[in-house]
Specification:
The complex is a heterodimer of chains A (409) and B (139). Chain A has 409 residues and is an alpha/beta fold. In chain A, the strands form 3 sheets. In chain A, strands 2-8-7-6-5-3-4 form a 7-stranded mixed sheet, with helices on both faces. Chain A has a 4-stranded antiparallel sheet with strand order 9-10-13-12, with helices on one face. Chain A has a two-stranded parallel ribbon with strand order 1-11. In chain A, strand 5, helix 7 and strand 6 form a beta-alpha-beta unit. Chain A is globular and about 75 Å long. Chain B has one domain: Sufe protein. Chain: A. Chain B contains 5 helices and 3 strands; from the N terminus they run H-E-E-E-H-H-H-H. The chains are: A alpha/beta (409), B alpha+beta (139). The interface between A and B is medium-sized, with 30 and 34 residues.
Chain lengths: 409, 139
Amino acid sequence: MAIKLPIYMDNHATTPVDQRVVDAMLPYFHEKFGNAASRNHSFGWAAEEAVENARAQIARLINATPKEIIFTSGATESNNLAIKGAAEMYREKGNHIITQVIEHKAVLDTCKRLEKYGYEVTYLPVGKDGRIDLDDLQRAITPKTILISIMYANNEIGVIQPIQEIGKIAKEKGILFHTDGVQALGKIPVDVQRDNIDMISLTAHKLYGPKGVGALYVRRRNPRVQLSAQIDGGGHERGMRSGTLNVPGIVGFGKAAELCQNEMAEESIRLRGLRDRLKDTIFSKLDEVYINGSMTHRLPHNINISFAFVEGESLLMGINDVAVSSGSACTSATLEPSYVLKALGVGEDLAHTSIRFGLGRFNTQEEVDYVTNRVIEVVQRLRELSPLYEMAKEGIDLSKMNWKAAAEH
Amino acid sequence: MAYSDKVVDHYEHPRNVGSLPKDDPNVGTGLVGAPECGDVMRLQMKINPDTQIIEEAKFKTFGCGSAIASSSLATEWVKGKTVAEALAISNTDIVRELSLPPVKIHCSVLAEDAIKAAIEDWKKKKEVSAPAANATAGN
């Protein structure tokens, strides 16, 4: 089978919309275009019915009830609503929030803003494996703690946090537990009852649905979570999120969730196999390669590898017919290497050499083999060009070199 | 990020990759940058002590495409030049030739530093080797 280039292997950033999802959405643009809030004619009723159907499909995927699903514009909004909404609502109970250092910026920046308003935030560290220590969490809890926000799985390294244990601790202490679930949803089983999750942020475009639509699960029983709305208006979505619903997007989100529900078990085995094939071949052909984060507690479609002595951006340039991403500073807007890798204790020298592979539903074995071979070929070529590789091979300890003196030479 | 055609050309066909014997008294080695910063360049030149002409130049670079291109270009430019002419090469010449965007200017600065460091190393070796024959040169 001929391979179509370029190959997309950056499915943590976004995913293509599944054709079956597109087909489900299409009628809701032109024929069934009604406003789901129009209560007095058939156009509105058709839209409302479609929305309620999608709500049920999404609820089923996380073992929730449909009424607990609040639609938003995406996970960034869901994270903002969950954290700011809870902080505002429970201000009298306390002002302390616990999160961790490798959260997505949508959580970190939201917490930073709350700090300006007088809230106190504890940012738990992570170990070399990328997971928080539950003892650290226990110790961080104070009588003022109102919310714990820890992501389900990380977007760069795919590491899955001990969610069930965190949920249990939060429940015992009577603290709300929010999790950013965007990378986990539809990839591994998520169960808000089993995991004691009070709020989970979700988005459609990471599970083969459209961009611009997300949801927040807000628990209604045991405990009943209340949130201060962050967007005021017509009181849609149980008053928690006003604004006309994005009906086609929501229909697509629902369909995407249903497909994941039906296919996740099989798909995750297939992707894990392909991911391991990629990893094993790279490790058999190249020396000085390192996996970032836990291999045990990891999403099946993710791998994040540092290729020592080869700068990430130059590697991406060499594999320009493959879409992956790098933790190198040169590829970030801030010119700083990945804060996630830094938090794991990965040295900056190795952070610059990291590549994230995010496999997805539409990747084939042929594509994986092509990408693997291209990466190996380019790494070998760039190492021929790398003074660091030559020095390391000569037995020079690069960490003991006085680079500043070398630079000032 | 889009790269200029010249950067791509140097990246795909780097000129003068390799090493020169660093203990040769006529070879100057410049090693600049740091792994934590994501750029390390090593530029070596073999300089004729009588004519002061740079007869050979080699490089190896750890860094982005622009860093590789800047050092590759530097070896091309210094070859055949005198030491004085090579010292006159400025980073802005490299920026212009490769059409580097503002975020990549530091790559050109590093290449200029590498040229100067290599020549400095060569000069130091000459001073050491002039009075004493058995002196060893470090980098």
